[in-house]
């Protein structure tokens, strides 16, 4: 090979290398443009999804608020029902206790009156016995006085 042909070959090779590098740069530029476009499209898609998620988040939050209000209403309603039932039971127990107390009081008063009557009857019986005894003593004393008066009258008359 001659030197001129070697230089031509080297020039041709250098030109091919230069064109390959230029082709590579063009390919990289095209791919980066495609990648940029894909990234931009994905960014827009992600932005759209974020907006949807934000919108759904608001809807979800609002639905939770509505559910919370319902739960609160149910709890308040159940509380009021339980309160009413408990108040009713307490009033029933109170009425029963008052009735039992009044009944016990009435029984105690009746028993007191019974004992009082028995006690009065016993006292009356003892008073009657004492009066009878007193009357016997009085009668004996009267007879004794009459006898003493007779004896004294006889003794003074004689």
Describe this structure in words.
The protein is mainly alpha-helical and 158 residues long. It contains one helix and no strands.
Task: Explain briefly what this protein structure is.
This protein is mainly alpha-helical. The chain has one helix at residues 3-157.
Structural class: mainly alpha
Largest sheet: none
Strand content: under 5%
- Kindly provide the radius of gyration, computed on alpha-carbon positions and rounded to a whole number of angstroms: 65 Å
Give the helix tally: 1
Mean pLDDT: 88
The geometry reads as rod-shaped
What letter string, H or E per element, gives the SSE order?
Answer: H
- Total number of beta strands: 0
- Percent helix, as a range, is over 70%
């Amino acid at each position: 090979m001659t030197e001129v042909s070697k230089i031509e070959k080297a020039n041709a090779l250098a030109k091919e290398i230069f064109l390959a590098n230029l082709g590579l740069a063009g390919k990289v530029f095209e791919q980066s443009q495609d990648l940029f476009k894909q990234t931009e499209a994905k960014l827009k898609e992600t932005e759209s999804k974020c907006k949807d998620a934000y919108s759904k988040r608001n809807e979800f939050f609002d639905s939770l608020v509505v559910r919370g209000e319902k739960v609160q209403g149910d709890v308040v309603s159940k509380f009021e029902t339980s309160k009413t039932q408990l108040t009713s039971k307490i009033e029933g127990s109170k009425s029963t206790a008052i009735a039992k107390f009044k009944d016990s009081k009435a029984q105690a008063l009746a028993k007191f009156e019974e004992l009082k009557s028995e006690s009065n009857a016993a006292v009356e019986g003892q008073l009657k016995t004492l009066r009878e005894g007193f009357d016997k003593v009085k009668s004996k004393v009267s007879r004794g006085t009459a006898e003493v008066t007779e004896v004294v009258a006889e003794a003074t008359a004689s």
